[in-house]
Each structure stands twice: as structure tokens, then as C-alpha cells.
Amino acid sequence: YLIQEGRFAYANQGFADIFGYDLPADIIGKVSVGELVAPEERAKVANNIRRRMEGEVPEMRYSFTGLRKDGKRVEVEVHGRRMVYEGRPAVIGVILDITERRLAEQQLRIAAAAFESQEGMLVTDADQVILRVNEAFSAITGYPCEEIVGKKPSVLSSGRHGKDFFAEMWDSILKTGAWQGEIWNKRKNGEVFPEWISITSVKN
Questions:
Q1: Which tens digit of pLDDT belongs to each residue from 57-79?
Q2: Alpha-carbon distance 15 to 19, whole Å?
Q3: Which pTM does this prediction carry?
Q4: Between the N and C ends of the chain, which has fewer C-beta atoms within 10 Å?
Q5: Integer Cα distance of 167 and 37 in angstroms
């Protein structure tokens, strides 16, 4: 990409693909830099571009959260440097989509927290599919990690609680982001047992 006076003077197809545009021509001269940056990151990105334009830091590498044409967010890393283009200062650089790398880093942090805990812990995605469990969870329920990951917590259901019980639980989670209480669950061997659980929703 090439930035000059707050707009893109050049972008290739790879740049267009990252931000969800069909062609570079849909970006060049038409889209401002700020339009492709998440609102909370715009001041940082603008300042970094200014510093390079003015020669304070001629070359720079950093990451930020971008905005695709459809409004979805994308994690990117840029490496740009100052240059003179048609007699005026500009910034030329390359940009990489690091969304998957960031997701992997996040999963590693979650896993580390879970595996350090002395209490049984499980982490699910937004669809309630189990992503991680720790050794304490396996010891309590009898389900090894490789057997429970990919399933839903309902596999532990004892059948002792009615629909109203779970409706109240999810109403609390949706409204407050958390729920605590005693629940009867079932181990892998069929044994029903009471446990105190805390559920917390993790957003963004």
C-alpha cells in the first residue's frame, strides 16, 4: 500500500482482499485510512503515520485492529516506511492479516489459565461447544480432555433439573454475564453428584 495525504495512492489485490474489497480500484483515492481502522485505534494509527511522514520515525512495524468493508474486524500487522512520491511525502508498506495468529495466542492464554487452576474448569465457545478443560475437571467428571472437547456441557446433565431451572440460569448469564449455584451433574460412570459452579461469559 501507499498512503499520501490520508488516502491510499496505491493498494494491491492482497490489500483489497484483507479488507473485503473486490478490487484495489475500490480503495485507491476513494477510501481514507481511518475508514479501515477500528475507532479505538484510529488515533494511534494516525499518529504513527504522522511520525513517519515527518521523518521522526522513518520506518515502523506495529499491529492494530482493522475494519473490513462489511464492518467485521480483522487483526493486521503493518511494516511501513517514509518515502517521497511525486514530490510529496508518503508512507509505503506491507500489511499482513494476523487474525488467526491472534486467535491462537488467545487460546494459549486461556489454556494456560485453565490448566493452572486447582478447580475444575471448562471453556466453551459462543455456541457452548467445549474448547478446553483442565485436569481437575477430568478428575471430577471422569471425562478425559480428548473425549469431552467438542461436546456441550449438557453431556453432564443428570436429568434432575427442569427446563425452568436452565431458563433462569441462561437469563442470568445473558443479563448479568454470570451465574452461580448448586447443580446436580452426572459423571461419565453414571454417578450423580452435587457441585457448586460459577459461569462467567467472556466477551470481545
A1: 889 999 999 999 999 999 999 99
A2: 7
A3: 0.55
A4: C
A5: 39
